[in-house]
Design a protein that fits this description.
The chain contains 11 helices and 14 strands. By secondary structure, the chain is an alpha+beta fold. Among the domains are: about 160 residues, 2-Layer Sandwich (Nucleotidyltransferase, domain 5); about 60 residues, Roll (SH3 type barrels). Helix 6 crosses helix 7. The longest helix is centred in the C-terminal third of the chain and has 24 residues.
């Protein structure tokens, strides 16, 4: 006992008389055996998952998948589970949507990816990594039939299947962002995940493989992204016609399209999955006109809304009146503007460039101005009027027109009176017959005496 105690005595440096920490540890550790069990039980934590990920893998050499759900809100197709399948060699992601998590549903969804992936790459799936939830006899039989080596993670160690877990996190983050930006309900979560989170990230460089596009690495072909559009954007789809007649039964004067919202991409490039806003019918069309709108920004300094014209507030606007009859405006010095603080409350934060407005340069027309036809005709009329005034024409002068003399007027009145009297006497003395028969019998000279014959 004394020997043991003596070995635990502190060790001092004979040079300066102070204890050396290294000498203490060396001397103290020589006589300890094992580990402190109480420290282990009181401080034990999980071991960090710091194993290096194998990045130099061929397509389909290692495939992982996991299941997310059940969702509280069913998708439009009645699905409640999301099953992402990821290729470790290229970061290519495939999404499957299930109504339940049974072996029949999961195996059927994986078999669809299996056939599609081998057709696109020409390779075979070699290894599959999942948790023990898929260690059933049905999965063992499937992997044995297709010569796939099935590896499992440790219980309660989902981090070992990091590819699938990261895919679920990024997909759900994208879904929440897309639904909020589009203003759609939670029932569109499957469309947002399938069409935009999965398909869009397959054509974006991944963090695991910098400088490589997953879909290009997976297929070995360069991809075209010109068909990508904003999820939930407003669009118009053309109504199909057969022999000039709409398939919906409309006439030739009806609208040629219907208003829709974009829900996703179809199998081939250029085909879109849309929903009619009136009938809520979902269909696929390639004849689409899009109105993608503007994104939502937190600061006007970095947004798309730029003030085109400078405006003054009501209190900074001075009213200018007339100064006398000459129409001259009042001097602006009589209406001084209030002092305006040079600091702007809405000034953009430091580090964010303030957009400058580039006004277009005004362009003047090079066409020579010519007088109109009305102006030319007015000048000709003025010339004719001046010439007629010189010649003494009445219409061109200010003199009154000549009138009849008084004697001439009296003579004309006498002649009119004689003519009126003549007409009156003629009407009284002469009988005007109304017919030929009346004229014969009324005139005695026209009546023939029968005795004279």
């Amino acid at each position: 006992m004394a020997q043991t105690v003596s070995t635990l005595q502190p060790v001092y440096d004979p040079g300066d008389g102070k204890q050396t920490f290294g000498q203490w540890l060396d001397h103290f550790g020589k006589d300890l055996r094992g580990k402190c069990e109480d420290c282990i039980l009181g401080h034990q934590t999980r071991r960090p998952f710091d194993d290096e990920t194998m990045k130099k893998l061929d397509p389909l050499e290692l495939v992982s998948f996991d299941l997310w759900g059940p969702s509280r809100v069913q998708s439009m197709g009645g699905k409640t589970y999301f099953m992402p399948i990821i290729d470790a060699g290229t970061s290519f992601k495939h999404g499957a949507y299930l109504a339940d998590k049974s072996d029949i549903s999961t195996i059927a969804a994986f078999d669809v990816f299996h056939a599609k992936a081998e057709s696109m790459t020409g390779c075979k799936i070699r290894r599959l990594r999942t948790d023990h939830a898929y260690g059933s006899s049905a999965w063992d039989e499937y992997c044995r039939r297709h010569n796939i080596l099935h590896k499992f993670t440790a219980p309660y160690s989902s981090a070992q299947n990091g590819l699938a877990e990261c895919a679920i996190r990024t997909t759900m983050e994208d879904v929440r962002t897309l639904l909020r930006d589009a203003g759609l309900g939670h029932s569109f979560w499957a469309e947002a995940a399938a069409a935009f989170s999965v398909d869009a990230r397959n054509v974006i460089v991944s963090h695991q493989h910098p400088g490589r596009i997953p879909l290009e690495s997976f297929t070995g072909k360069r991809q075209n992204i010109s068909h990508l559009r904003v999820f939930g954007s407003k669009c118009w789809s053309k109504i199909p016609t057969v022999h000039g007649v709409q398939v919906s039964g409309g006439s030739k004067l009806d609208n040629r399209g219907v208003e829709c919202i974009l829900l996703g991409f179809a199998s081939s490039s250029g085909n879109y999955k849309v929903q009619d806003v009136t009938s809520h019918r979902v269909f696929v069309s390639c004849d689409i006109v899009f109105e993608e709108g503007y994104p939502h920004r937190t600061s006007p300094a970095v947004g798309e809304t730029i003030q085109l014209f400078d405006t003054l507030d009501d209190e900074n606007t001075c009213s200018v009146g007339n100064n006398g009859d000459n129409g001259e405006s009042a001097d602006n010095s009589d209406f001084p503007l209030p002092d305006v603080d040079s600091t702007n409350d809405n000034e953009a934060p430091e580090g964010i460039p303030t957009p400058t407005l580039q006004l277009p340069t005004l362009r003047r027309s090079t066409r020579v101005p010519l007088p109109s036809t009305a102006v030319i005709e007015s000048e000709d009329y003025q010339k004719r009027e001046v010439a007629s005034r010189r010649e003494g024409h009445d219409w061109a002068t200010n003199r009154p027109r000549a009138t009849l003399a008084v004697n001439d007027l009296n003579a004309l009145t006498i002649k009119l009176g004689d003519y009126t009297t003549c007409l009156a006497e003629t009407k009284a003395s002469h009988h005007i017959p109304v017919s030929y028969r009346h004229a014969i019998y009324s005139d005695p000279q026209m009546v023939v005496d029968p005795d004279a014959s």
